[in-house]
Amino acid sequence: MTTPAVGDVVVLTELDSEPPLLVTAVDEAGDEVTGVLLADLAAETIQRLDATAGDRQRRQELTTAIRRAEDLMTFRVPVAELRQRDQPATQGSEPATGGVR
């Protein structure tokens, strides 16, 4: 998998994790990402993420705000243990919460 970008929504392959992880920071040198579980986000935040589907710049700005403002547990995960979700998040027109959560 190529390294995801801030704002991408990915799945943990080692655990076949549900819910997906929102990437909040990328450490390309360490080949790791930091993220928060979508299930830990408030409903309003999820709606705002949905509204940014297909708009990478707005998604990244919102993700930066989430990283700074929300008191959430974060996870550091090697890129090798991630895969893109079946539904595109920031790349396509589907919302971040599309599909089974």
Which features would summarize this protein structure in a list?
alpha+beta, 2 helices, 5-stranded antiparallel beta sheet, disordered C terminus, about 25% strand, about 100 residues
Notes on the protein architecture:
- The chain has 101 residues and is α+β, with helices and mostly antiparallel strands.
- The protein contains two helices and five strands; from the N terminus they run E-E-E-H-H-E-E.
- The protein has helices at residues 43-51, 56-69; strands at residues 9-12, 21-27, 32-37, 75-78, 82-84.
- The chain has a five-stranded antiparallel sheet.
- The longest helix is centred in the middle third of the chain and has 14 residues, at 56-69.
- It starts with 8 loop residues before the first strand and ends in a 17-residue tail after the last strand.
- Mean pLDDT is 81; it is low at 88-101.
Topology record:
Elements: E1 9-12, E2 21-27, E3 32-37, H1 43-51, H2 56-69, E4 75-78, E5 82-84
Helix content: 10-25%
Major sheet characteristics? 5 strands, antiparallel
Stretches with pLDDT under 50, minimum 5 residues: 88-101
Radius of gyration: 12 Å
The residue-averaged pLDDT reads: 81
The global form is globular
Tally the beta strands: 5
Oligomer: single chain
- Total of DSSP H or I helical runs spanning 4+ residues: 2
Strand content: 15-25%
Order of helices and strands, N to C? EEEHHEE
What is the spatial order of strands in the main beta sheet?
A: 4-3-2-1-5
N-end to C-end Cα span: 22 Å
Structural class by sheet pairing and helices? alpha+beta
Please sum up the structure shown:
The chain has 101 residues and is of the alpha+beta class. Helices cover 23% and strands 24% of the residues. The chain has helices at residues 43-51, 56-69; strands at 9-12, 21-27, 32-37, 75-78, 82-84.
